[in-house]
Amino acid sequence: MLSMLIVEDERWEREGLVELWDWSELGIVIAGSAVDGVDGYEKALQLQPDIIITDIRMPGSNGLEMSRRIRETLPDVGIIVLTGYSDFHYTREAIMLNANDYVLKPLEEEGLRATVLRVAEDCRQIKYQRAREQRLQAGGRLAAEKLLLDVLEERDAGGDILAELLAHDPLFAASLFSLSIVVPGEQIGLASWRSLLPSSCYVVPSGKNPASWALVLPVLENGERWDEASLLEGAGAPAVVLVIGGKAAVGLERLGETYRELLETAEHSIFHGRRGFVMPDSLMAERLLWREAASSFRAEWGELCQNLRQHILNLREQEAIKAVERLFELLRQHSGADKAYITMVFNSLFNELASLENGQLHEEGMAATGRMDGKSLYEIQRLDELNRLLHKYISELIQRLDRKKNRKDDYIVEKAVKLIEETYGSAKLSLTMLSSELFLSSNHLGVVFKKATGITVHQYIMDVRMRKAEELLRQTKRKVSEIAGHIGMSNQSYFCALFKQKHGMTPGEYQELMQR
Q1: How many alpha carbons lie under 13 Å from residue 199 in its C-beta half-sphere?
Q2: Do residues 331 and 353 lie in contact, with contact meaning Cβ atoms separated by under 8 Å?
Q3: Around 177, how many Cα atoms within 13 Å sit in the side-chain half-sphere?
Q4: Helix H or strand E segment including 24
Q5: How high is the pLDDT of residue 487?
Q6: Among 45, 155, 161, 491, which residue carries the largest CB count within 10 Å?
Q7: What angle separates helix 383-406 from helix 408-423, to the nearest 10 degrees?
Q8: CA 288, 293, 298, 300 torsion-angle sign
């Protein structure tokens, strides 16, 4: 549907035009009406109609003056001027300069209808052409950004990249380019970013760091450069988390080298939780300070880690948490330390803490391979995330040590149950095997287990195996012999006898019943 604005100072003529036809049959909806040229201009800017029908003679601002002003802002709007015969000879040239067509008064419905349909079709063609141009422009922009990513990541895309870029945008003929990396907040998307930036600025999603975008801007011949810092003010915090600015404009052939340097600065800044505007030179200065302070850092770090271990062994959780905060405060004072070094010292710390459980590493915590909660330390992108994970690990570690020290029997039973759940498929699973794994005598484990659960270890193992078998029979079509082997019972006859004793039917009958 096209929208239309009617501008007429005579009320009865204005209302007559609104009610003249069922405009929807012509593919038009009346967006509004105005009483004179001044009102018409304001309504046009507000409603942005596709078509305007206006009288030529009106108080304040006549139809031609209004049309001229509207054209300056809405060049594609279709304008139909209504003029009396006496005015026509004097104003024909002005009408054709500022309007698409005209209709002589008194109005004839068929003549007006034909004119409206003709102008409406012109408007549709213009809208189609504009949409097509925008699609082509957007497609060309995306293609240029893909080529720029090849340039930034120094990939040989084949062919003459500069020639291909010039085919998309003549501005790539510039001898210098401004390059920055932006880490946006979650509140603003790529489309919104583009609306904030000059049309000559290309936004390239980083292939190496999905959380960041590279901004490439050709420097104009007069040397005018885009001010990266103004982006923070224009977008408004916290939409912009971080802007890494280039030291100077560089040629197209050096964009890859500069990009590597900026990306390294961005990754370091993200890890340390930096915000705002950052220059690579500041990172170099921080690293120089770190080299000078590394020795004293290691000594202080070692002392803090020793205090942390003592608090954990003594089950003083609040003191342990305070010790963790001092560790991270120390790291914040040495922001030049890179991620690889910090990850290494934390990996050592986690392994030391794990040894407090006599080398018995738990899935809730850190394994010797450097994994915590199933996530490698080297995959962590932010120091704050490492802080949260360490707090969680220490809290759980103290709980386990407390159970081991003050509720030893409960701890033993929990370990035994966990081992049974993990190894029920092993034919070797028995009281003897569990005792060996837990460094206990079989007699002691058997007594403690029955006291806590009310059944023997053997009975518990059989219960777990029957439960697992029942799940497999209900959910799969595996053979009974396969299921028996899967739950650690190589003697199929024994398995079938136990199953029938528990469920009142054979495994095969149960499977058929459940899957009927």
Answers
A1: 6
A2: no
A3: 24
A4: none
A5: 92
A6: 161
A7: 110
A8: negative
* Omega before 238 within 30 of 0, i.e. cis: yes
Query: Measured in Å, how far apart are the chain's first and last C-alpha atoms?
Result: 58
Place of tokens 């009288």: 55
The segment(s) of the chain belonging to CATH 1.10.10.60 are: 409-514
Cis peptide before 106 (omega within 30 of 0): yes
Show the tokens assigned to 301: 């770090």
Q: Which class for 225: exposed (0-12), middle (13-18), buried (19 or more C-beta within 10 A)?
A: middle
What's the CATH superfamily of 2-107? Response regulator (3.40.50.2300)
Cα 227 to Cα 221: distance, rounded to the nearest angstrom = 16
Q: What is the 3-state secondary structure (H, E, C) of 47-82?
A: HCCCEEEEECCCCCCCHHHHHHHHHHHCCCCEEEEE
Of 481, 509, 510, 512, the C-alpha closest to 495 is 481
Interatomic CA distance for residues 263 and 249, integer angstroms: 16
Per-residue HEC secondary structure of 260-305 comes to HHHHHHHHHHHHCCCCEEECHHHHHHHHHHHHHHHHHHHHHHHHHH
Give one DSSP letter per residue of 123-170, joined into a string. Answer: HHHHHHHHHHHHHHHHHHHHHHHHHHHHHHTT---SS-HHHHHHHH-G
* Distance separating alpha carbons of residues 414 and 404, to the nearest angstrom: 10
For 83, 220, 251, the CA distances from 151, given in Å and listed in that order, are 60, 20, 11
Confirm if 461 and 416 have CB atoms less than 8 A apart: no
Beta bridge partners of 358: none
| Cβ-contact 177, 251 below 8 angstroms | yes
CATH code linked to domain 409-514 = 1.10.10.60
* Rounded Cα gap, residues 186 and 240, in angstroms: 9
Cβ(123)–Cβ(135) below 8 Å: no
Where exactly does CATH 3.30.70 map onto the chain? 145-278
In CATH, the architecture of 145-278 is 2-Layer Sandwich (3.30)
CB 250 within 8 A of CB 177: yes
User: Which helix (H) or strand (E) is 235 found in, with range?
Assistant: helix 228-235
Amino acid 100: pLDDT: 81
CB 7 within 8 A of CB 36: yes
Q: Which residues contact 486 (CB under 8 A, 6 or more apart)?
A: 425, 468, 472, 478
Give the pLDDT of residue 21: 87
H or E element, residue 358: none
Per-block mean pLDDT, blocks of 10 residues, the chain (516 long): 90 88 90 90 93 86 84 89 69 68 83 91 85 64 82 73 80 82 68 69 73 77 56 49 67 84 86 83 89 92 93 91 95 91 90 74 40 63 89 90 78 90 92 91 92 91 93 91 92 92 90 84
